[in-house]
Input
Amino acid sequence: MADFPTNEDEARSKGILWTFGSFIVIVLLVLIILAEWWSREPDLFNVQEEAIERLQVTHTDDMPVGYVYSNTLAHIAEILLYKPGGYITNDVAPPGVLLDNITNWEHGALIMLRDATTALRNHFARDQSQSAEDADLAKAEPYFYYERNSWALPSTESEYMKGIEALHNYMSRLQDPNAKRPAQFYSRADNLWQYIEIVIKRLGGLSTRLSASTDQFAGAAHGAPTDPVNLNKPTLGQTPWLEIDDIFYEARGASWALLHILKAVKHDFADILLDKRAMNTVDIMIHALENALTPTLSPMVLNGDGFGLFANYSLAMANYIARANAAALDLRDIMNRG
Output
C-alpha cells in the first residue's frame, strides 16, 4: 500500500518552507539596509581642523605651509577607504556590487585626488623644473593611480593605503626642518596656475557630459549640426538613460573632493591669493561646489526637460560646475599675470 503524507509531515514541510522564506526575507532586509547605509555620500569635513588634529597643534599658524593641503589629500583617500562600507568600487558580492551610484561617486573623487597628488609631486613640492622631486611623493602618486576595481593580489585598498602612508611621511618631513631630507612646499602663482589648468579641463568635461542629458543640449555641445563650419565635427550624443545617474554621481564625487582641495589651497596659498586679489575668485568656486552638493530630494536622478514639469538634476549640476569652471578660468588668468 502507498504511504500517504500525514498531517505531521505536511506541518514539517510547511515549517521548513516558512523558515527558509523567513531567512530569505531577513537577508534581503539586511542587504537593503546595508545598501542604503553604504550609498550615503560622506559628510564634509573641516580641512584646517583635520590638519590641526593630526599635527596636534592649537592653531594653523603653528604648522608649515603645505601641511593642510597634503593632509587634505591623505584624509580624502582615508575617507574613500574607511567610509561606511569601505571602498565599494572593487566589491564582488552584494550589496556592494549592486551599488553603482556610490562607485561612480568614488570614481569622481578619486580623479580629483589623483590630479591634486600629481600637482603636489610635479609642481608644489618642486622649486623649479630642474629640481629633484620629493622621494615620498614619487612613491605616493603611482599608488593612487593603481586600478580602482582590483579586489585581490594586490587589492586597490592596499595600494591606496601605501599612498596614504607615503603622504604621511612627506608631511612628517615637512613639519621637521631638521629632518635629514626636509620636505618643501612652494606656494607660488605659477605652481597654482599649472594645477588650475588641470581643474579647468576636468570641470569642463563634467559640465559637457552633464549637459548631454537632454537631446537639445547634446546636439549643441559641439556646435549646431546645421552650421556649415561644423558639419564634419562630431556632435556629442545624448547620454543613455541608464548612464545619467552615473555621470551625475561622478560629478558629485568630484565636486566633494575638489571642494576640500580648494579650501586647502585657500589656506596654503593665502599670501599669493591676497597679493593678487584672487581670494574672492576661489570663494566663488567653493560656493558653486557647495551648491552642487545640495542634498537631492528624489530617490532617483530626475531627467526632466529644462522648463518641463520635472527638474533635470544633471542640468542643475552642470550649471553649478560651469560656474565653478568660469571662476577657475578667471583664477588661471590672474595667476598667469606678472
Remarks:
- The chain is about 60% helix and 0% strand.
